[in-house]
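Memo to structure team: turn this sequence into structure tokens by end of day. - J.P.
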Amino acid sequence: MTGNPNIHVSWSRYFDNVLQIVAALVEDHEDYPPHDHEFVEVVVVVGGSCLHETALGKKQITRGDVFIFRPGAWHAYSQCKDLALYDCCFFPGILGRELSWMIEDPLLGRLLWSIPLSPAQHGTALLRLPESALRKCRKTLDELVGLSTPDKVSHPVRLGLLIQLLATVAQHLPAKSNRTPPKPNPSVIAALKLIDDHPEHAWTLASLAARVHVLPDYLTRAFNKVAALPPMAYLRRRRLEMATSLLVRSEHSVGEIGSLVGWPDANYFTRRFRAEFGLTPTAYRMRFSKVSQATAKDALKTAASG
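Reply from structure team:
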């Protein structure tokens, strides 16, 4: 087997390299079958209604509903009626680089990591915005839409707008118990970056802890406080996110994909995949590959047209 194991999940296969953050306003969204994405997607509904299906079930959505999808999480639209929404997508590598500090934030950490990565959420977070917050999000998203063209390459500006959007959304997460917010922890940030940069590496808790210069037990406690799951569980999720992209965007066999993401035992890879997504890798590929490719082409067309 040859080739870089990350090449098949690269954002640049579908978007210009400079467009690591894109947004589009879809004013008359049509019904769309189940599909997944290789990127993080933020959906903000601003009008109309539809029956929205995710791994969490079916829900009638209307103005003010917001969804966050981690890579590999799927959803579908049906019974659309005058549905209008903003679609903001960003390259998941940003989570391990420019946005890595967010995992320490009590709200943003929940929005992007602890809620969608908890086993019951299947990579999905959902919430509802009041009208004042929705208006603020629309203003930010309109600016992002205007910058989502290859001729406007100012990544720092788009990054700032993305941070504004996520911060506004995170302020309206469901209330939580009186848990003391975690203190900033450099070892957690460093471990997060190592996993995001090289999820295919044969990490063990001991080797990861050694790289960030802390004891394994300490790393587990600290990581769990801010991410709501231990480092090895986060590694497993990142590998599975990579695997979903490889399954729908490459011709590698299931066994080869398991090896590429760090699990050379094909049977073990299949068991882990089925436990997370409820489908075998083969069934997942059959269900999502054609739809996912069409989604990527549509997103590229939207970004190019501005």
